[in-house]
Amino acid sequence: MPERTASLTRNTNETQIALSLSLDGSGQASIETGVGFFDHMLHHVAVHGLFDLTVQASGDLHIDAHHTVEDVAICLGRALDQALGDRQGIARMGAAYVPMDEALARVVVDLSGRAYSVFRAPFVVPMIGQMPTSLVEHVFETIAVHARMNLHAEVLYGRDDHHMAEALFKALGRALRIAVERDPRRTNVASTKGTLTE
């Protein structure tokens, strides 16, 4: 079977990013964005998705975390899209419920080739570590757009913002793991259109 990998760089006046992704990995991650909480969340995506993920990013953190977090999410979405190729033979859809102590999150994805994001989470505090909680939604939306997938993410309940965010990222990894799996019975794309790329 062909390897499903992608490596890309993004260099702007605000950020410099190198990212590599293997969809058929073992959950190995090396992530350094300068935003510790974001590193922690991306590590969960890799571990629970069984993706091998390497991210080296530097950005204008003297301003805030926005540009760095956003641009890494752009790169991750694009890497997912590139690694999936023509999306032949994949399960296409995946869903996961993940608890984290008092919080419960649900993420549902469809690697349909059409970008759409729905996000609901009752965050209370403005920051988790160095990362604004508002950026959690932005990360999910940005990945969905650049991976060209339909993504629904929701915290069903919870009190602690760290727990709610962690449950969401773990659920994202698990839902993606299901969706990217090759189905040995499927020899084409899971679509009546005959394509998931147009």
Rounded radius of gyration (Å): 16 Å
Oligomer: single chain
Proportion of helical residues:
25-40%
Task: Tell me the span between the first and last alpha carbons.
Answer: 24 Å
Structure class: alpha+beta
CATH architecture heading = 2-Layer Sandwich
Instruction: Count the domains.
Output: 1
What is the fourth-level CATH superfamily?
Answer: Imidazole glycerol phosphate dehydratase, domain 1
H/E topology pattern: EEEHEHEEEEEHEH
Strand content: 25-35%
Describe the strand arrangement of the main beta sheet, using strand numbers: 1-2-4-3
Number of helices: 4
Query: Could you say which overall geometry the principal axes of the C-alpha atoms support?
Result: globular
Average the pLDDT over all residues and give the rounded result. Answer: 95
Q: What summary fits the major beta sheet?
A: 4 strands, mixed
